[in-house]
Amino acid sequence: SIIHHKFNNSSSEVYFPRNNAVEWKPHCSTCDVCNSSKNWGKRKGAMYQNSLIKKRKLNVERGNKKNGTISPLWKKTRTLNQIKNNCKQIHLDSNSLVVDYPADFTKSVTCQVCEHILSDPVQTSCKHLFCRICILKYFKIMGCYCPCCRHTCFPTDLSAPVKSFLNILNSLVLKCTMTGCDEEILLGKYSKHISKHKELKGKEA
C-alpha cells in the first residue's frame, strides 16, 4: 500500500513516502465522496467561468443598467442613434461630398448629433455646431447641455454661426443623391436642385 506504518515502542505513525507519487484510491466503488472528489476542482472552475460569462452577457443585454436605472452614457448613445436614424431622409451624409476633405474639416461641417452635413446650423454658447432640429430634439430628451462638452446650454442660447463659416459651408460641392443624376451641386443650391427633380417626377406621374 501507499501509506506506510512506522512502528516504535509506544505508538504507530502513518506517513506518505517521499519518493513515490501519491494517488487517491477509493476504499470502495460505491462511495460517493471518494468517486466524486476528483471532479470538485473542475466543477468549481467551470461554475465560476460560467458565472462570469453570464454576468458579461447580462451587462451587455441590459445596456449597462445599474440598480434598475439606465446609465447616462447608454442613454446618450441610444438618443444619438435615434436622432441619426430619424433624419437620414432629410439630411445629407458626408459621403456625398465630392472632395475628399481632411477628417477634421469634415467634422467641422457636420452635426455632432446626427453626423450629417449641417442643415440650418446653429451654434451653442460653447461654440459647437449642430443642425437646429437635431440639437432641439437632444435638449428635449437629454436635457439642456451640450452633447460635446456637457456645458449648460438652453434653446435661447443658440445663435447663427458667423457669416464666413456659412459661406464656406454653402460652397461645399456635393453629388446629387437622386438616381440617374450625376450632377455636382453647391450645398447652397442643393435644395433648389432637388426641388426640380421633384417637379419633373410630379409631371411624369
TrEMBL record:
Domain RAG1-type as annotated: residue spans: 172-201
Domain RING-type: 111-150
GO biological process, one term: chromatin organization
Residue ranges the record marks as coiled coil: none
UniProt keyword terms in alphabetical order: Chromatin regulator, DNA recombination, DNA-binding, Endonuclease, Hydrolase, Metal-binding, Multifunctional enzyme, Nuclease, Nucleus, Transferase, Ubl conjugation pathway, Zinc, Zinc-finger
EC category: transferase
Name of encoding gene: RAG-1
UniProt key word Nucleotide-binding: no
Classification via InterPro entries: RAG1, RAG1_imp-bd, RAG1_Znf, RING-HC_RAG1, Znf_C2H2_sf, Znf_C3HC4_RING-type, Znf_RING, Znf_RING/FYVE/PHD
Catalytic activity: S-ubiquitinyl-[E2 ubiquitin-conjugating enzyme]-L-cysteine + [acceptor protein]-L-lysine = [E2 ubiquitin-conjugating enzyme]-L-cysteine + N(6)-ubiquitinyl-[acceptor protein]-L-lysine
GO cellular component annotations of the record: DNA recombinase complex; endodeoxyribonuclease complex; nucleus
Protein name: V(D)J recombination-activating protein 1
Domain of life where this protein originates: Eukaryota
Known cofactor(s): Mg(2+); Mn(2+)
GO-annotated molecular function: double-stranded DNA endonuclease activity; protein homodimerization activity; sequence-specific DNA binding; ubiquitin protein ligase activity; zinc ion binding
EC identifiers of the protein: 2.3.2.27
